[in-house]
Amino acid sequence: MKILVCISHVPDTTSKINFINGDTEFDTNGVQFVINPNDEFGLTRAIWFQEQQGANITVVNVGNTDVEATLRKALAIGANEAIRINANPRDGFFVAKQIAEVAKNGNYDLIICGKESLDYNGGMVPGMLASLLNYNFVNSCTELSIEGNIAKVAREIDGGKEIISATLPLVIGGQKGLVEEKDLRIPNMRGIMTARTKVLTVLEPITANSNTLAVKFEKPMAKSAVKLVSADNLDELINLLHNEAKVI
Predict the structure, then answer these.
(1) DSSP conformation letters of the chain
(2) Model confidence over 94-116: pLDDT tens digits?
(3) In the chain, % of residues over pLDDT 70
(4) How far apart are CA 144 and CA 151, in angstroms?
(5) What is the pLDDT, as a whole number, of residue 214?
């Protein structure tokens, strides 16, 4: 079985976020980047298929040279090879088109994406990718098993979960539940040394339009200070709820 795992290169959640050029661009200075958590769950699940069923794993990213450290980490965790598509990931459609081209040439049985990236939270790429490839697609996956050509998938729905049977080839949008956080792999020294010799292929992008444009970024408003109201001053409490909080 051949598995393609899509890897996003996202800021660590502890990083301080700023914008430049009139708040139109993300400022990467001083920001630590990591594998997108939803993608890391998917990669770890792919490693399980590698260990249990002999799967071959390729990781792919659309990005510039600065993403190669993230791809090398994925190789150190256990992926067999990596592909970097040498382009700025301008929007979800552009990214999906690039990865679809790789998938068409690679003849993959299973494509694992995170259901969304932790930076933009667009959640567009997995569904677009499945549509471009005409593959079966299941989003918000929390469980995945494969026997032969049949995948059994569980996904979150309102109030519970849905169990789905689908034939390969298949695209999934994964999340926590594919594996638990305690099962995530930390690269060991042997994995890090081995990753240096694994193949990291750089491909030039195909022509594809960007259908969306980020006009401006805005940070959330800072939370105001807490106001304490005496328990016996109901009139003041009602006034604040009505005129300031505007909830009554």
Answers:
(1) -EEEEE--EEE-TTSPP-EETTTTEE--TT--EEE-HHHHHHHHHHHHHHHHH--EEEEEEEE-GGGHHHHHHHHHHT-SEEEEEES---SHHHHHHHHHHHHHHHT-SEEEEESS-TTT----HHHHHHHHHT-EEEEEEEEEEEETTEEEEEEEETTEEEEEEEESSEEEEE-TTSS-GGG-----HHHHHHHTTS-EEEEPPPP-----------PPPPPPPP----TT-HHHHHHHHHHTS---
(2) 999 999 999 999 999 999 999 99
(3) 100
(4) 7
(5) 80
Task: Give dist(CA 112, CA 173) in Å, integer.
Answer: 6
Give CA–CA dist 172/155, Å, rounded. 10
pLDDT per residue over 185-211, tens digit each? 888 898 899 898 999 999 999 998 887
Q: What is the pLDDT of residues 7-53, one digit of tens each?
A: 998 988 888 888 888 888 888 888 888 999 999 999 999 999 999 99
Structure tokens at 80: 């067999």
pTM of the model: 0.85
